[in-house]
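haha ok so turns out i had the wrong file open the whole time. this is the CORRECT one, sorry everyone. sequence first:
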Amino acid sequence: MEKRIVTSKEIGDAIRRRRRELGISQERLAEILDVSYQQVQRYENGRNKLNVESIQNVAAALTVPVAYFFEYTASDLVAELPTPYQPAEEKTLLKHFRLISARNDKLVVISVARLAAKGT
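then structure:
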């Protein structure tokens, strides 16, 4: 099998995709990374290459492992969407939430999460 080099454009596309999944703006990501929003635009467009430190910072900001940027896309392999990366806390929360059978109990959990998110 031939080795495949991931391009800066592909890494930029992955950054944009994950940023949008999280619902954050380029400006917000720039604040988190302590760079200008123009720099985030250059990363996403593939015009600027990310060094080792920068890619680790972007991965942490987007809550994905560094390997996320080097994985083959679904179109490279099969016609399935990749499973988005979830931190362990999210997986645990979803696991327990799915075990709740009563609709009212689920609504209480959603309300608590909503209130907790407003406090951050």
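The chain has a mean pLDDT of 84.
again sry for the mixup
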